[in-house]
What we know:
Elements: E1 8-13, H1 20-31, E2 35-40, H2 50-57, E3 61-62, H3 73-80, E4 83-89, H4 91-99, H5 105-112, E5 117-121, H6 125-129, H7 131-142, E6 146-147, E7 151-154, E8 160-164, H8 168-178, E9 188-193, E10 198-199, E11 205-206, H9 213-224, E12 228-233, E13 245-248, H10 252-264, E14 268-271, E15 278-280, E16 299-301, H11 305-310, E17 317-324, H12 328-339, E18 343-348, E19 359-366, E20 369-377, H13 378-397, E21 408-410
Helix pairs in contact: 1-2, 1-8, 3-5, 4-7, 9-13
Amino acid sequence: MEFLSGKHILVGVCGGVSAYKSAELVRVLRRAGAQVRVVMTASAGEFIGARTLQALSGEPVWQRWSDDRSGMQHIELARWAERILIAPATADRLARLAQGRADDLLGAVCLACEAPLAVAPAMNQAMWRHPATQHNVSVLHERGVQVYGPDEGEQACGDVGPGRMQEPQVLAQALADSFQHGLLAGLRVVVTAGPTREALDPVRYLSNRSSGKMGYAVATAAREAGATVELVSGPVVLPAPAGVRLQRVESAQEMLEAVLPLARASDLFISVAAVADYRPATVAPAKIKRQAADRVLALEPAADILAAVAALPTAPFCVGFAAETGDLRQNAQKKRLSKGVAMVVANLVGPGLGFETEDNALLLVWEGGQLQLEKDTKYRLAVRLIAQIAARYRLSALNVVEPHAKHSTENTR
Length: 413
């Protein structure tokens, strides 16, 4: 279940005997590395205690509108979730979802959330077979809701037939599988991430504010797209993405030396790292002491990793990143042309933007077109970015020349 690591999963618990399985589901998801939040309906509390789910999830459990002091918690929960799974989903809940009702917290979160929704039905076999329930399930299918189960077997009422909620391990695996797709299946991808550090002396260095979160999100999204991913990272405090081979480096030169052999054998190179443009011309062998007089620091160009990879005789499809403080489109196009790469992904940096934040906004530019990805979490942006890179890569592999595309904006929430 590697694809659940770090994912935001919202579990909805409805009032039914199978609610006891929700506790095990939360435990399995947490064990797989997911972050889990729980929303309970009023009737769910008659079958399982909120304290149990809070202890297992490590998060407050949401039950009623009165829990929402800001009046906007349903929106915040909806924006936080990367998947919603309602387990158990009763016949009543399926009807509410089909009707689009928002008369309780769980219903409002489902309506406000644009992440994929899944349900795990649990009810009496006659209720499941009833035409009204089957109609509601059909409506949900048409809207893209994933329906996991139900299983067949003996039920609490003594009946035997379809209506048993699937086991927690099966549901967790289904959620993990939902993050996978084959857009980059069979391809070898190299991603760089984080800052570099250029030594001044044994104590000090030149660096930048990059947290590495965007690069790690891109590596994760590429892995979920079926690629074999090599991640070369500058110094950050992030864990290695699941299923990704990680090499840690410090300076731009070290990153270049790690990247070149990997890039020669890769299909895609995505340069997300905020690599230093300059490094000290000389590195002091001992700590530089404070002096009364002004000190002049001589700098020289650091390794240009993106340009070096793009210049390889059999270069991979190259995508560069550009962190800018202004003139985003012009600077992105200038970098694309100067580096000789297929695409540049640009973002603004500054207070509350780009570096050291959970969210970002991206401008993608390529020959003949551009696409604006509006502000969203870095992971969600990475998923959409990988889809765009896969599309451009396929066209380049077919030697297709695109007509000039209109400038467009994608709302990524």
